[in-house]
Amino acid sequence: MCGIVGYIGTKKACPILLAGLTRLEYRGYDSAGISTIEKDCIKIVKDKGRVKELENKKEIKDLQGTVGIAHTRWATHGKPSKENAHPHKDNSNTFSVVHNGIIENYYDLRNLLEENGYKFYSETDTEVIPNLIHYYYKKELAINNEHTVQTFLRVVRNACLDIKGSYALEIISKDFPEYMIVVRKDSPLVIGTCKDEKYISSDIPAILSYTRDFYFLNDLEFAVLKNDDIKFYDTNLNQIDKKISNIEWDAMSSEKNGYEDFMLKEIYEQPTAIRETIGSRISVDNKCEFEELPLTKKELENIDKIYIIACGTAMHAGLAGKNVIEKLCRIPTEVDIASEFRYRDPIINNRTLSIFISQSGETADTIAALKLAKKSGSKTIAISNVIGSSITREADYSIYTHAGPEIAVASTKAYTSQVILVNMLAIYFAEILEKSNKEEIRNLKKEILELPKKIGETFNCAERIKQFAKKIYQEKDVFFLGRGIDETVAKEGSLKLKEISYIHSESYPAGELKHGPIALIESGITVIGILTDKLLVDKTVNNIQEVITRGARTLIITNQNVNYSMFDEVIIIPKVNTFLSPILSIIPLQLLAYYISKEKGLDVDKPRNLAKSVTVE
Ligand code: M6R
């Protein structure tokens, strides 16, 4: 849940590190710090607070070195404080380390090190790492007083073998001032490369303005970096080859481009995100194509169950996609929350297909669920927005949403891109299986291709939503209701509102209301209804009538013919195939959450207690 960035090159590291941290701040923002090598000694400047505050510190100007590491923190072990902020160094000031992840056995390691005379000055799990490295370093030097980079590598590797948990680490040392070592296990880390410079980061967008050429490490692979050289090693310290991946994302897509907030920009990027995700995969008269998914008819016929597994918004995208898979492929499909799935002993075998959805591709629970499914014999497909992310390296097959970098903590364009991708996947499977009605699939394809335009039309509601936000921003509770696919959107709308406006909200299948929650409805409470499924609209209207009778204020998102005069506010969205309706009906709800958050003067892109990517359990 933290962000790390590193630089080794010919320029002053500090400004590059600060710029990287600012871009990574969405991953954690309670403290920040930088460490550079200065004339063969290590300097650290760190404190609690945001990157801006770090940037304004007097000491930051003293950092002149061309090798440096940096960190923005989301506290796990120990409160936000200067002592707990990263980088952390060992007792002898030889090694400096930044870490994203969690060391599960840090207590045991700390005891071992304390028994060997080491002292600890923070409450963090991370502080054991530089000291453990130093512990092995001392041992090495006692046997052989050789100061080669291989010694540096060996002692880092030895420490990593002792560590249980997840980590992305950047390590610098005053004894090896021209080098940096990086390694990862279950936490994200990418390496950007140019001729005389190397950039390291938790994600691609933070360093995309410097290079498009990236290396990705697998678990427990080590990179030894110099400004003009990189060598890679496996756990046994055998040198290995790595291919460079060229990333096509536009550097401007990681900037706000005149929008006040990333979230607003990302909401308005949805037509492009959907268009890019559709790409050339769909055309009305040809079969849907997924080259990266070469599944045969026989293999698909063998599948008797599909799981869709994800967390948060990505899980809601799975819920929105379940029906289309079942309808077109006639394969029972279950949607699971990754953190539940991994501990509930799910029934998985070689007839199971498990689809994992993750914008970042780094969500710890989703990765763990994937490993479990794979181990139990399931075929696995990863859907991610980030090329080379952990989940895509674990899965048998990976397919990508092409939403571009999503920076705001609240997911918007990734969600709609995931929903469209699952719809296309359903079509792809159905066409291979030759199960579905050809005309139905043809119509669905046509509608998919019309979506970018319809999303554009949906934005017309923005001003009315803004005005509605002004009316309800001081509310304490909001209810979201829907049936069928609309209920999945109710869930997502409710999550968006909670995340960035801090208003308590509940989402319910409309029919469940009278089984308990209706007791909470009182005069003036806001109820938001989503009504896009023709077959269910009358039923939902009846349920909403019940809350109107009890004095609720209502906002309706619909593309159906209903008696508009019943409701306080009605937002009409374009008509669309029910399977695709979440892509349109979520837009007013994304905007509502956004405008309420603005009205309350909150930090939309970095809501309290949250980080973009949940890389710890
Ligand atoms: O990167 P992922 O898609 O795996 O992230 C999953 C959730 O953490 C994420 O969707 C979260 O719920 C968002 N903050 C929602 O806006």
Architecture overview:
This protein is of the alpha/beta class. It folds into three domains: 3-247, Aminohydrolase, N-terminal nucleophile (Ntn) domain (Glutamine Phosphoribosylpyrophosphate, subunit 1, domain 1, 4-Layer Sandwich); 255-436, Rossmann fold (3-Layer(aba) Sandwich); 460-599, 3-Layer(aba) Sandwich (Rossmann fold). It contains 18 helices and 25 strands. The chain has an eight-stranded antiparallel beta sheet with strand order 3-2-4-1-10-9-11-15. The structure holds 5-amino-5-deoxy-1-O-phosphono-D-mannitol. Residues 311-314, 358-360, 363, 366, 409-411, 499, 613-614 line the site of 5-amino-5-deoxy-1-O-phosphono-D-mannitol (M6R).
Write the layout of secondary structure elements.
Layout: E1 3-8, H1 13-24, E2 31-38, E3 41-48, H2 51-55, E4 67-73, E5 88-89, E6 95-103, H3 106-115, H4 128-143, H5 149-162, E7 165-173, E8 180-185, E9 190-194, E10 197-201, E11 213-216, E12 221-226, E13 229-233, E14 239-240, E15 245-246, H6 262-268, H7 270-278, H8 297-301, E16 305-310, H9 312-329, E17 333-337, H10 338-341, E18 352-358, H11 364-375, E19 379-384, H12 390-394, E20 397-400, H13 413-433, H14 438-458, H15 462-472, E21 477-482, H16 485-501, E22 504-509, E23 526-531, H17 537-549, E24 553-558, E25 569-572, H18 581-599
Helix pairs in contact: 3-4, 4-5, 7-13, 7-14, 9-13, 9-16, 13-14, 13-18, 14-18, 15-18, 16-18
The structure holds 5-amino-5-deoxy-1-O-phosphono-D-mannitol (M6R).
